[in-house]
């Protein structure tokens, strides 16, 4: 079986290959950022807990400032997101959230299967969009169950997520920024209402867990609970939906790999890891130098930013043989699709669980699943932070 061409809509890997070979630690002066494309440099930088995450500590003009706009959160909330926190606050906030998340994710598989089965029942056999009709609703419903937030209006929550995450669209104009702020306020209000109800009457959900931890003496403020739950609600549903849709697209474009998975369903875990390596749903992550350091032999001064290009490191030929081949039987080194070090994505286990169940169930339900137009190239959403397809049209 021959592979279906992916088209030329995403040519970033050609650029990454050149940078990795010629300038693996590249200084982008326009954005005041060092670009890292080698896996060794990426892992060392992400795993170094001494480096800063807070964009406020970056030199003026650094690109990372655009990802932390000053007016997106309520007064007092700006530094409440653990993704921007440094020690000791990062461990203080992440610890109880991670503990509560881990306990809940371990027991969530039956809920995920039920959500997936319900969504499968809505799919027309003649054809559908894997992204809009299948992948998008699943993580929204799962995250709603996890947090204890009513996400029954799937379309509304997807639009809220897209609007709020447009903060990462560097080209957004003032009107778009104001709309994003309005959306952010709406979600804040929703979470405040849920927190107030759970404080009066705890339920079986993550927000109740975090309020209980707060009552038990864990140093979590209301704003820290609200902001981090918002980040889980928004980021978790967008990236996981992209993982599911991209995974299905890749398998359909690589029929030999799809045949292997159909013949050996136990390969689904390995297939998810290869999907994450090959087309990670997050483009990059960065740290701010906490002092003068060297990265791969290149000097970096305190306050300067170095950004790891996740997709580039995940195709480093010194780590992954034949890196531009999609192979679900690949063994050896692991990818960094979820980042690394102290700021490793807190939702990684949940994303893997949802993707395994959703992709396997879709393939089981539709034995003849195929792309509606096998010759149509992939079309990727333009976004500086996230990597996902605009649609995946299929026939059952």
Structural notes for this entry:
With 396 residues, the chain is α+β, with helices and mostly antiparallel strands. The chain has one domain: Cytochrome p450. The protein has helices at residues 12-22, 39-47, 89-106, 109-120, 130-135, 137-147, 154-165, 174-200, 206-215, 222-253, 255-263, 268-278, 310-313, 348-365; strands at residues 25-28, 33-36, 128-129, 284-288, 293-295, 298-300, 305-309, 370-371, 393-395. The strands form three sheets. Strands 1-2-7-4 form a four-stranded mixed sheet, with helices on both faces. Strands 3-9-8 form a three-stranded antiparallel sheet. Strand 5 (293-295) and strand 6 form a beta hairpin. The two termini are 19 Å apart. Mean pLDDT is 89; it is low at 1-9.
Give the topology.
Layout: H1 12-22, E1 25-28, E2 33-36, H2 39-47, H3 89-106, H4 109-120, E3 128-129, H5 130-135, H6 137-147, H7 154-165, H8 174-200, H9 206-215, H10 222-253, H11 255-263, H12 268-278, E4 284-288, E5 293-295, E6 298-300, E7 305-309, H13 310-313, H14 348-365, E8 370-371, E9 393-395
Parallel strand pairs: 2-7
Antiparallel strand pairs: 1-2, 3-9, 4-7, 5-6, 8-9
Number of strands: 9
* Radius of gyration, taken over Cα atoms and rounded to an integer in Å: 21 Å
CATH architectural category: Orthogonal Bundle
Q: Strand-and-helix sequence, N→C?
A: HEEHHHEHHHHHHHHEEEEHHEE
Looking at this protein, list some descriptive labels:
48% helix; 396 residues; 9 strands; globular; 14 helices; four-stranded mixed beta sheet; three-stranded antiparallel beta sheet; Cytochrome p450; alpha+beta; disordered N terminus
């Amino acid at each position: 079986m021959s592979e279906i061409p992916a088209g030329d809509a995403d040519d970033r890997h050609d650029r990454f290959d050149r940078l990795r070979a010629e300038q693996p630690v590249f200084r982008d002066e326009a954005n005041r950022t060092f670009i890292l494309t080698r896996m060794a440099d990426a892992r060392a930088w992400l795993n170094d807990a001494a480096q800063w995450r807070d964009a406020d500590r970056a030199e003026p003009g650094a690109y990372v400032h655009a990802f932390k706009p000053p007016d997106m959160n309520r007064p007092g909330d700006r530094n409440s997101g653990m993704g921007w926190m440094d020690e000791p606050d990062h461990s203080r906030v992440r610890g109880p959230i991670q503990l509560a998340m881990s306990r809940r994710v371990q027991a969530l598989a039956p809920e995920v299967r039920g959500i997936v089965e319900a969504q499968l029942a809505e799919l027309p056999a003649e054809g559908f969009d894997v992204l809009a009709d299948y992948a998008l609703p699943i993580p929204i419903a799962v995250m709603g169950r996890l947090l204890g937030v009513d996400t029954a209006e799937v379309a509304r929550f997807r639009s809220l997520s897209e609007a709020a995450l447009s903060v990462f669209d560097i080209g957004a104009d003032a009107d778009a920024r104001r709309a994003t702020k309005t959306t952010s306020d709406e979600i804040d209000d929703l979470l405040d209402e849920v927190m107030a109800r759970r404080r009066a009457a705890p339920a079986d959900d993550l927000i109740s867990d975090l309020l209980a931890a707060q009552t038990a003496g864990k140093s979590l403020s209301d704003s820290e609970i609200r902001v981090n739950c918002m980040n889980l609600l928004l980021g978790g549903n967008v990236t996981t939906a992209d993982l599911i849709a991209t995974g299905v697209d890749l398998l359909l474009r690589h029929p030999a790999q799809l045949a292997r998975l159909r013949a050996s369903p136990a390969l689904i875990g390995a297939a998810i890891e290869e999907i994450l390596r090959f087309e990670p749903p997050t483009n990059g992550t960065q740290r701010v130098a906490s002092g003068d350091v060297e990265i791969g032999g290149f000097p970096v001064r305190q306050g300067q930013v170095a950004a790891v290009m996740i997709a580039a490191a995940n195709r480093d030929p010194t780590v992954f043989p034949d890196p531009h081949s999609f192979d679900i039987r690949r063994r050896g080194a692991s990818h960094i699709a979820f980042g690394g070090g102290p700021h490793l994505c807190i939702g990684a286990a949940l994303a893997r669980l949802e993707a395994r169940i959703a992709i396997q169930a879709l393939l089981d339900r539709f034995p003849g699943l195929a792309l509606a137009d096998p010759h149509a190239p992939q079309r990727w959403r333009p976004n500086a932070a996230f990597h996902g397809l605009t649609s995946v049209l299929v026939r059952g």
